[in-house]
Design goal:
The chain is mainly α. The protein has one helix at 2-99. 0% of the residues are buried. GO terms for molecular function: structural constituent of cytoskeleton.
Length: 100
């Protein structure tokens, strides 16, 4: 009978040890997952910051293109005025010369 008690106690201790080992494994797995979550959050934050930087670069490029378009439009308008003004002078001069 004493052997049965010792055997039962030994099995009970082994069962508890097995449960403790399983708990330790689970705690290690949880710690690993939490570490991976932290790394993923860090990567996500870095990517978000990179995207914000790209958005600002795009805004600057668009501003530069708008300024360039305005500059060329003003040059075109100025050139158009000069050409239309001097073309009118040429026509008037020819008409004046033709009357003489």
């Amino acid at each position: 009978m004493q052997e049965n008690g010792e055997l039962g106690e030994k099995l009970s201790c082994e069962g508890k040890l097995s449960e403790e080992e399983e708990k330790v494994k689970l705690l290690k797995a949880i710690a690993d997952l939490l570490s991976r979550i932290g790394e993923m959050e860090k990567i996500t934050k870095e990517k978000d910051e990179a995207l914000l930087g790209r958005e600002e670069e795009k805004r600057k490029a668009i501003r530069g293109l708008c300024l360039l378009i305005d500059y060329h439009r003003r040059c075109y308008d100025h050139l158009k005025e000069m050409v239309s003004g001097s073309y009118g002078i040429v026509i008037r001069t020819r008409a004046y010369v033709a009357k003489k």
